[in-house]
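FIELD: query
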Amino acid sequence: MGATIASGMIFMLPAPLLHQPSTSTSLLSRIVVPAATPIAWPDVGSAAVVIPALGFERSYHDKVVPIASLTKLMTAYVALQKLPLAPGQAGPCLRVNAGDVANYDAMRADGESSAAVAVGETLCEDQLLAGLMVHSAGNFATMLANLTWGGTVAFVRHMNADAQALRLTGTHYADVTGVDAGSVSTALDVGELASLLMEIPVIREIAAQSSVTLPVAGTLGSYTPFIGTNNVVGVKSGRTQAAGGCDAMAMTFRLNGQTELAYAVVLGAQGGDLLTPAGDEALALERSVLSSLRTLWIPAGTVVGTLGWANQRVDVVVKKHLRLSWFAAQNPIIVRMHIDSEAQPVTAGEVVGTLSVLVGALQQVPLTVEHSMSPIGFGQRDRANINGVSVSDGP
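FIELD: result
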């Protein structure tokens, strides 16, 4: 699907016409914008793409499903709401007790992701967050709950309260790890939460790590596919029989000289070890969107049409630069121009209309005339809609 353009038209109010009706013309051919490109949605499960810098959100089969260890995104968020932490800070610490060791032993026996601990070991908030986010340690989620809100029951209550406050309407938590199939969400909710969580500098720093080193457990690797490659900088993956493979992937890209983040979420992937297909699908999803980045550049002074009465014509030009970037992946651009001039003289530099570009959000720039001009008759009202702009990859 390409651009939508409003064709040049003239609307005349009923009035005695003593002269030839006013006319408008386009000096540029109809805008040519690359057609919308397909998004590489997975064959099974649900998915979403969230790009905050451009207000881009798309979802596919976005239904409420179990999310496995993606639950831990909210675990980290709630902990940091209670105990904010900056990069380089350790935060409050706890001493591992026999109950913490028993919890680790039980998780290990059940095949849940966890990290070894020993009685008397000291773990601080930064280490608990790193073990949680990088190695998906479920026992660290429990210890974070104990450290911040005194236990998992109170902590889960805060998880659901924060989900409501953030308007994650498809999200509900039954535990702090995601092992419970009652911890559910949608791909779009997960994408929005991931983007919010990655705005916290300490999480941005932790999530990009491919491994974490802990006092007793030693060095443990990340379960999140492609961390440190393909511009992937986080954030979390997970798998259970009920949830299938799940991945919330953050990838950097450049936009107008700035590094931005795009998020792809895949839920319910099947096959293999579940994590690998989820990661492969998330990567393909992000690439299909990011590769469709386009730029519209209209410099100030661009002539886009004429306005006139009878044989008198004046050029209509763009008054300010317009530079707009968007993703052509299922995101058509709509360009409209409106010129409105009464049957009165127009003065050089006078604003006579607007150029509107709709692609996600609406952008508008004023239009002006380069020379003064007067109509040759009276009682005429001229309204013209003229179109024509040019597209390039930059100035």
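FIELD: remark
The chain has eight helices and 22 strands.
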